């Protein structure tokens, strides 16, 4: 079972979860004008998986999807993910999973993300814990094949309303939200994990270079959120916790410290890649700060206490996953959802609710948490041009 397959102004009016974020304007190619993205190609884990895992491995079941889609829609939440809000903001449709053979439309992009995916290629033991067989390396290879096959079928005169135009790949937005499973799998030995960080980051950079070599030019890269604040971990901390184990907001400090170190290395690598990849426009998005701000100000932002889990039953000796049924003391127990998901930050103890994702997306799309500090509608322009 996947545990950490999750997956970035300053003062913004909260948009209700049933109201779409305003769409970006389309304009010219001058550095001061909005970009005209013809498509989005996304890579990542369950933070941005719009159904790849559901069609390739195990489908999401009710009550997943209940708030927005009113049915399971392949997403690890009750509604939309950040990538859905990005697509809508740019005036593009939600992304079809690359692995989905039914009802998919790839005219405006594709989603290669799968729940449990890692940057590092997982070992056999990691597969047993729910890691995806589609790490970033495979996702990038799928993208390359997708691009090559698109060119072939387009030249053959095949149905063109559901496939991209080959000349538009270099103009597309390429989004990344991956890495948390690499860290979550190693939290048992923090020092060993810390020693692996440079290698994990180097693998990430290698795949970004590979994307650039086949024509990708616009990159929007999320760092990793505060894994030490995931309710499914926090609720299992002994009471009272050891001195200094939790930070002032109740998050596991040692886990967040490693995440911060990973994010620091990732940002330094992005800066290096900007200098190396002369035609690339690379935006680094500080998802960590946005999510931590929401968690540390939950009640002020209209949510209940930040470590409440909406779907599933978790407590001392009890773990019933969202949508699962099990037998406890001879009785059948169902892990259903809470009465008001819009008041809760965490959907299932790992992933965020539709309303929380709305809040997060609202806070990153204008560029207030980006480096360089530009909105996503202008992220196609190189930093030196602005």
TrEMBL record:
Q: What is this protein called?
A: Uncharacterized protein
UniProtKB keywords: Glycoprotein, Hydrolase, Signal
Provide the leader sequence positions: 1-24
Membership in a protein family:
Belongs to the 'GDSL' lipolytic enzyme family.
TM segment ranges: none
Q: PANTHER family per the record?
A: ALPHA-L-FUCOSIDASE, ZINC FINGER FYVE DOMAIN CONTAINING PROTEIN
**What CDD domains does the database record attribute to this sequence?**
SGNH_plant_lipase_like (cd01837)
């Amino acid at each position: 079972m996947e545990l950490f397959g999750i997956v970035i102004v300053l003062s913004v009016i909260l948009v209700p979860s049933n109201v779409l974020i305003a769409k970006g304007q389309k304009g010219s190619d001058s550095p001061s004008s909005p970009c005209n993205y013809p498509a989005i190609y996304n890579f990542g884990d369950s933070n941005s998986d719009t159904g790849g895992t559901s069609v390739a491995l195990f489908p999401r079941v009710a009550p997943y999807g209940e708030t927005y889609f009113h049915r399971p829609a392949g997403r690890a939440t009750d509604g939309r993910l950040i990538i859905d809000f990005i697509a809508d903001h740019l005036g593009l449709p939600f992304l079809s999973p690359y692995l989905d053979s039914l009802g998919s439309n790839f005219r405006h992009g594709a989603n290669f993300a799968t729940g449990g995916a890692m940057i590092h290629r997982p070992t056999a033991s990691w597969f047993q814990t729910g890691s995806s067989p589609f790490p970033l390396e495979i996702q990038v290879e799928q993208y390359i094949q997708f691009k090559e096959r698109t060119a072939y079928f387009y030249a053959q005169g095949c149905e063109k309303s559901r496939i991209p135009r080959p000349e538009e790949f270099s103009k597309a937005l390429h989004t990344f939200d991956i890495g948390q499973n690499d860290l979550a799998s190693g939290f048992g030995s923090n020092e060993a994990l810390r020693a692996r960080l440079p290698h994990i980051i180097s693998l990430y950079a290698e795949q970004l270079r590979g994307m650039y070599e086949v024509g990708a030019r616009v990159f929007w890269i999320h760092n990793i959120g505060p894994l030490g604040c995931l309710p499914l971990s926090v609720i299992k901390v002994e009471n009272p916790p050891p001195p200094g184990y939790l930070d002032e907001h109740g998050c596991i400090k040692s886990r967040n410290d490693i995440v911060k170190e990973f994010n620091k290395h990732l940002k330094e690598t992005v800066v290096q890649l900007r200098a190396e990849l002369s035609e690339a426009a690379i935006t680094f998005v500080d998802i960590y700060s946005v999510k931590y701000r929401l968690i540390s100000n939950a009640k002020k932002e209209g949510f209940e206490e930040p470590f409440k889990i909406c779907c599933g039953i978790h407590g001392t000796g009890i773990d019933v996953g969202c949508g699962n049924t099990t037998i406890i003391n001879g009785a059948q127990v169902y892990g259903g959802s809470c009465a008001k998901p819009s008041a809760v930050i965490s959907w299932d103890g790992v992933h965020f609710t539709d309303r929380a994702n709305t809040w997060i997306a609202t806070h990153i799309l204008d560029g207030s948490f980006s480096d360089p500090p530009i909105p996503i509608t202008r992220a196609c322009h190189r930093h030196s041009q602005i």
